[in-house]
Every structure is written in C-alpha cells, then in structure tokens.
Amino acid sequence: MAGTLIMPVVDEGLGNSAYLVDLGDGRALAVDAPRDLRAVRAAAARRGLAVAFAADTHLHADFLSGAPQLAADDGAQILASAAGGRAFAHTRLADGDEVDLGGLRLRAWATPGHTAEHLAYLLLDGEQPLGVFTGGSLLVGAVARTDLSGPERTGALARSQYASVRRLLTLPDVTPVYPTHGAGSFCSAPPGADRSTTIGREKAANPLLAAVDEDSFVAALTGLGSFPGYFLRLPEQNRRGPAVVAGAPALAPLTAPQVRALQNDGGQVIDVRPARDYAAGHVPGSLAIPLRDAFATWLGWLADPAAPLVIVAGPDQDLEEVAWQALKIGYENLAGTLAGGMPTWRAGGLPVAVTPVLAPRQADPATVIDVRQASEYADGHLPGAHNIELGALTGQAATVRGRLVVTMCAHGDRAMTAASVLERAGHMAVAVMTGGPPDWAEATGRRLVA
User: Fold this and answer.
1) Are 138 and 194 in contact (CB under 8 A)?
2) pLDDT at 2 over 60
3) pLDDT recorded at residue 3
4) Residue 345: burial class (beta carbons within 10 Å; 0-12, 13-18, 19+)
5) Are 200 and 206 within 8 A, CB to CB?
6) CATH code, residues 253-347
7) pLDDT at residue 223, as a whole number
8) How far is CA 113 from each of CA 19, 140, 167, 193, 225, rounded to the nearest angstrom?
9) Single pTM value for the model
C-alpha cells in the first residue's frame, strides 16, 4: 500500500518509541504502546484513526504496556508472542504467523535475545516489506541488552541476540527499521537523535554488527552499565496485564497533618518541584525528584513501589502528568498531594529542611560525591571526587563519610535528588554543587581527571 504512514510516538524520558500505523481505512496498528496513551491517542485523533490492533514486541521491563487499555477502551486486538505466557486475552503469535490488517499483513519473526520471547514484526504489502518493528533486537547503532533476566541467562540470550540480528540483516537493505528503544533508554542505545534507521545503514555503521563472530558479539554486550531495579519487576506485571485505568488519574488533596501522618506510617513524600525550590525549603525526609522527562526513571529507581506516595508540587505543576509518569512504571499507590504545597506546610508550623547550594568555585573536590553514571564519571571528573551512581546511593548512603558532603552531577537535578537521599539516611551536612565538571573547571581554572 503505497504511502503507508508510520508515525513514531516518542517518550523522551524513557528513551522509547511507540509506533502508530495508518492502515488506510480509518483504523490503525499501535506497536509497543505505553500505558500512558495520551500521545498515542493524540496522534490517532489528528488523523481520525481508531486503534484496531495493539502489538507488543516483548514483555517490557521499562514501562507497562498500553495494549490492555487499548483493548478495553477501543476494542483493539492484542498481538503478542505465544511464548510470553500473558495471562489476558490476546492473539498468540509464533514465528512466521501472520495477521491480516486489512490489505497489509503483519508477520511475526521470533527474535529472542533482549528477552526470551521477543518478536519482531514485518509490515508487508504483498511480499514487499514496508518496515520492520524490531523492539529491542536491532536498534540505531546498537542492540538491546540481554542481562535483564538474570546473570544465569545473560550469555545464552546474548547468543540468541546474535542469531536474531543476523536474521534481520537478511531483509533488503532499504527496509526501514523501527526500534522501540532509542537514545536515553537504559535498555542500551547510544546517544543520538535518530529513532529509526534502515537495514543497510546498520550493516554499514552499527559497531556491534562489525563483530567478527558470535563470541566477539557476546563480549561486546558486557559492561553496559547499571539499570533501574524496577526493570526486574515490570516484565511480570506486563505478563499478568496492567490494570485498566478508568479515566484521567487524579491526586487527592491532603492536609499537612495528613501528610505527616502518612510519612510517619511509612509513606514516601516525593517533591517534584525544581531543584532550587526544594533547596529553599522542603518536608524533612522527602525525596527530591524534579518533574522533567526523566522523572519516571528516577522514581522507579529510588522510591519503594509498595509505599504510599505523597506528592509535593509547585503551584503551576501538572499533577496529572505526575500521576501518569508514576502509573506508566507501575506505581499505583498514589496517596495524594499536599494541598497548597509548601506554603501550607510552613503555615502549619511544621519543620522545614533546607539544602545549601554551592557555586562550582565553592566546592572542595575532596568533599564531592559525583552521582553520575560510571561512564560519565570516567569521561571527566573533579580530582578527588568519589563516584557513587545515584541509583546505588540509597544502598551505599551508610558508607558516606565526611563532615560535609557535596553532591554533584551534570546540571544539578540528580545532585539534588542525591542530597535528599543522604538527608533521608541521616546525613546532617549535605550541600549541592550547581552545574557539572566543565563548570567547575571553568570556575577554578583546574583540569578535570579522566
């Protein structure tokens, strides 16, 4: 079908792309749609489309699938791997199975590696491939990691990934490739703006495809860095099927005494205000996670999914956005939001904590904990600064020593989150350095260490 429109719907925060395919008759196919369907629905509405099919390439680790929601709301037919063992109604597909989309066809290819049950989908017009949805198999300049199912399976899955990628490379060079994971995804994609590619381009430029043999390929898939702990939890939630959300989520207003009672009873206060506002005054023991593209990742990495969550927001922040960000990674226990924000808390005479902020020239490198990823730290850091990744800081907070501890990252948001982690763990003298290593080097005239 000439001119078939394939529309990417990008989640910049998680680094992923869903895809909406206009089937030409008012219906659409959605591939790897997330539970937060607002952007997918907006794209469909712009073209007057109804989602008739919802295909998932694999049991996702980094977000909950929106396919069950599309089935409930739109009557979409869910397409997924028979090997995935999903516990809800769906069309079970195995290698070579095809689905008639009404003129176009979708052919499933078993492409295990990123996960054991992984499928790629060829979109066909007759026998001509219009594109291939590769999920976590072939990415732009990479392939997705194979260590999300435990160390005992990593090696075998890496070898499966090698075979799956080689199979995909048998498609014509001009075949468009539409991966789910892209830049910013902890499922492993290198930085870059491109979200799609072609088979020929990957043959020419993907460094992993230059591996001389299977062993070299497997070796290249090691050392991919840390990933959030919730990645180990979500595949099973996706297998069982995420609960259907009835309408737009809302956060109940809570009084300051109610917030304090919830906190004393094990609830977690999440402060989503900008870092500078948190520093100026916040609920003691709260966790600073500024509302931005990466909010869901850090919420999932640092907050207890079983604890009731109380949100502290600024007057102009979107509480519905906060709720969707939490829901898309399986945080269902949303107790509510502090009505009136910090002014209400202060008016109640309740204690307020303050976090000092230092300019780069004020920071003594010997006191600095650099909370960036290890790869960022290795690219250039302050001499004497100690590296503890933000995701590991909760577990290592007790090992932090020093009369004063200064946290830093690349810009300041992660550093403020780190300071809140340390304050919650009982550290009494914590400050945050604004900016990152280049700012410190410029301010002091000293060189960074690589």
Assistant:
1) no
2) no
3) 61
4) buried
5) no
6) 3.40.250.10
7) 73
8) 21, 16, 12, 25, 18
9) 0.94
